Amino acid sequence: MLVGYMRVSSDSDRQSTDLQRDALLSAGVDARHLFEDHASGAKDDRPGLTKALDFVQAGDVLIVWKLDRLGRSLSHLLTIIDSLKDRQVAFRSLTEGMDTTKPSGELLFHVFGALAQYERALVQERVMAGLAAARRRGRVGGRPKAITGEKLDAIIAALDGGMSKAAVCRNFGVKRTTLIETLARIDWSSPSSSRDEPA
């Protein structure tokens, strides 16, 4: 069975699936087996796509007008096609001429897979280079510290003086989780168990 999926970016009247619908019908898809979404490709929640993927069975072919109608990114596209392949469902894109039922389509799929892996490696390399550059400038990656400087010194002094964590949170206006994470980071340990009373 041929199953079609269509997507346009919004519910605007200017955005219509007519072009995609005509192409899919011309490719042999039955109008009863068409699924569509009116949503950005970047959105995770696409009910039409979910229904189409749930509907297809082994031996079926999922068809789209163009590759960018299906996946949020190259890696997302390949994940979908890979999952279809595991379920013995073929995939076809009309514009790009990709058809996994043919050897050329299989080859193209593997080329896309290699490109996605290359893209992930480049992203990881850029992230690592950025973190290294930040460290050289004295900055450390991650969220900024919530409690620093004189405020942290005052909190440590209060805790060392016997104030409970609950009282510190109230007096210094900090969340208990923030206080606990900060104390763990500086490896502060309570000299008295009485300080661990609930906030």
From TrEMBL:
Q: Which residues form a coiled coil?
A: none
One Gene Ontology molecular-function label: DNA binding
* Stored InterPro entries: Homeodomain-like_sf, Recombinase_CS, Resolv_N, Resolvase-like_N_sf, SSR_resolvase
Q: What SUPFAM superfamilies does the entry give? A: Homeodomain-like, Resolvase-like
Q: Which residues form the active site?
A: 9
> Per the database record, which ranges form the Resolvase/invertase-type recombinase catalytic domain?
1-138
Pfam families given in the database record:
Resolvase
Which keywords does this Swiss-Prot/TrEMBL entry list?
DNA integration, DNA invertase, DNA recombination, DNA-binding
* GO term, biological process aspect, one: DNA integration
Query: Which family is annotated?
Result: Belongs to the site-specific recombinase resolvase family.
The record, for PANTHER family, names:
DNA-INVERTASE FROM LAMBDOID PROPHAGE, SERINE RECOMBINASE PINE-RELATED
Q: What's the protein here called?
A: DNA invertase Pin-like site-specific DNA recombinase
Annotated organism of origin: Thiocapsa rosea
